[in-house]
Amino acid sequence: MGSETGKFSADIGEDVIAAALESVEKQREAAATGAELSPEADASAAELAASRARVEALEAREKELSTQVDQERERTLRAMADLDNARKRSQREREEVVRYGLERVLKDLLPVIDNLDRALELGERTGNWEGLADGVRMTRKLLEDTLARQGLKAFSARGKVFDPHQHEAMGYEERADLPPNTVSTEVLRGFTLHDRLARPALVMVARPPPAPAAATDPSTEVAEPASPSSETQPPGEG
Questions:
Q1: Per-residue pLDDT tens for 162-210?
Q2: Domain boundaries, the chain
Q3: Which of 3, 122, 206, 226 could bridge to 178 as Cys pair (CB 3.0-4.6 Å)?
């Protein structure tokens, strides 16, 4: 059995411990009867004491490690619970963003609906439907200003060179007053959202009309020969 200082061994046989206990009992009996202890008995007692000390040290170390394992397990469980709570909280926040993210924009659009309601009510009450056009124009301006605050802005393509990155051609128009490949008619305006194209402008593109057919020159026309029946007879014949 090793005797290095600071090192303990847990591999103590039961027979060794039993022999040591038997030796101690004999020593106790010898001490009680006044008999002298042999050197072998002294060595066995010392070895037993050292074995007990090692066992006690190992038991204390085992309790310490068991306590550390329990503490680490509790910390791991708490960390897992915190992670699960954070995941659930993040999921709720994402759902709220999806559900209520447009709340501010929709609130800004409510005055537009109010103005349209007032314009229709005024037309029905007074019968002055001509003034409704002014109300619609004012409401459209309010709507455009509201959308512009959210980053949505309209742009016009009329009279500009056709750009496939911003325009969508619906067809061609033969226009002699416009350069070829120029937007001649704007069907729908385009919109950008924070400098990103949200909807291309729907347009008609100008192209030159076909060239007119060349006029016939009278000097180049060839006279048709007269028919025999149209020839005049000489005088006196007939």
A1: 999 999 999 999 999 999 999 999 998 899 988 899 899 999 999 999 8
A2: 14-82, 102-150, 152-210
A3: 206
